[in-house]
Structure formats: C-alpha cells, structure tokens
Amino acid sequence: MHWLPLACLFEFGFAQLFKHSQRRGFYAPVVISANYLVLSGVLCLYFIATGDFHFSANAVKVGAITGCVFICSMLVMTRALEVANVAAVLTAFRMAMIVPVVVGVWVWGETIRVGQVAGIGLALLALFLMTRSSGRTYRLNGAKSLGLIALVFCCQGASHSCLRWVHYAGLDDQFLKVLPVIGATAGTLGAILIALRRRRPRGAEIRMGAGIGLYNLVALMVILTTLSQVPGTVFFPVLGCTVVVLDNLSAHFLWKEPLSRPARVGAALAVVAILLVV
User: Fold this and answer.
1) pTM of the predicted structure, to 2 decimals
2) Which residues are within 8 A (CB) of 33 and not within 5 positions of it... i.e. 6 or more apart?
3) pLDDT computed for residue 18 by the predictor
C-alpha cells in the first residue's frame, strides 16, 4: 500500500508536464509520440546492454494492444480539448476511472466492499465538481460533442483497464518487457499520424517529449508495481481523486487559476471518498 501515494504523485507530475507543454504551444501528437519512443528506446538499449533482449509472446501481445489503446486515448483527449467543452472533457477523462473498477469486479473477480461502493460513488461526485469549473466552450457542440466526450471516457477507461490487465495476464515480473512494446507501438502509430498530417516536428517539441518520456518510464514502473499489490477497486478511485485534488491546488497556487466553490466542495468530498475506499 505504501506504493499508492508514490503512484499518485507520479501521475500528478505527468499531468503537470503535459500542461506545461500545452502552455508552451507545443503540438501534442509530436510530444506524445516522442515520449513513447524515448521510453521504449531507453528500455530496449538497457536490455541489449544486459543481453536480455527477448520478449515473451504474452508480453508482446499485452504491450501491443495497450500501446494502441494508449495512443488512441491520448490523441482523442488532446483533440477533444481543442474542439469541445473543456469542463465536460476533463470530467469524462477523470470519471473513466470507474471503467477498470467495473472490469476488475466483472471480468477478474475482484471483491468490493459496501463502503468502497459508497466511496466510489462519492469519488465520482467529487470528480464532477472539481472538473466542471472550466466553462470555456469551443466550436463543437451538440451530438458531435457528446460523441467525442463519450469516446474520451471509453478510451481512457480502456487505458486504465489495460494497465490492470498486466497483472492478470501474469506479467508482474515482466512488466519491464511490456513497457517497451507499449512505447514502440504507441510511438510508431503517433509518428505515422504526424507524417500523414505533414507536420514537421520542432526540436523543442521533441526535447519536451523526450523529457516526459524519461519521466513517464519511471511513472509507469511505479504504477504497475502498485497495481501488482493494490486492488483496482482501491487504486483507481484513490488515484483519480488524489490527482484531481492536486491538479486543482496546483492550478490555484502555481498557475494562478481561480478555484471555484464547487471545486472546493469536490476536494473535500474527494478526501472522504479516499478514506472510504481505502
């Protein structure tokens, strides 16, 4: 359980790095793709240097599928933030934590207590309150906006479920072999998309993505280690609430963004939700 706070801090830091990237006007697909390719490259060099460059079929399968889901989720998320209501997108993104909880109980037979169910319900309410304060509206509305927001929810939920799948696929002791496959798959697909769009990457964007990739490597190692020890019914609600609380605090104190009253109420509810879930 001691890994859980560390996982939350790393996830929060990852979100802040991407926020910094966006504020500098970097093209998201380039940063995302560079992040994954660097992550994969560093691990591949390590395995080559240690003479351990071989991967089981199961690691390749889980890694390739997860990589496809990861890049789709990231690209859908960044696109949605460009054209849809920011508050709705962020709410869908964070509330997607319910998907791996449901999958864990339904598919993998994880147990869940009544108190945890109440805590998860409270967590969803807290996430809604803490992510609804951004009222900016973009050019996409109506059914198209709703469809894109639903896609954000599904893709992010699938990403979380894939991370949980590593444990149930029996790959806890091989997750370092899963990560380079995830990175190579996601990074390659992202690079193909960039090429199709004929967008020339800038050096600063590549450097930013490379730095995030090194950070992401450590973050994913911590998260997968935590998931090997902590039930998904505990991990995902705690992660979701903690990261959003920290996001709101950093937005208020670091980025000088006003913290609305609903967000403050949501933060208080999130603390209660975490106590119930744990």
Assistant:
1) 0.87
2) 71, 186, 187, 190, 191, 193, 194, 209
3) 83
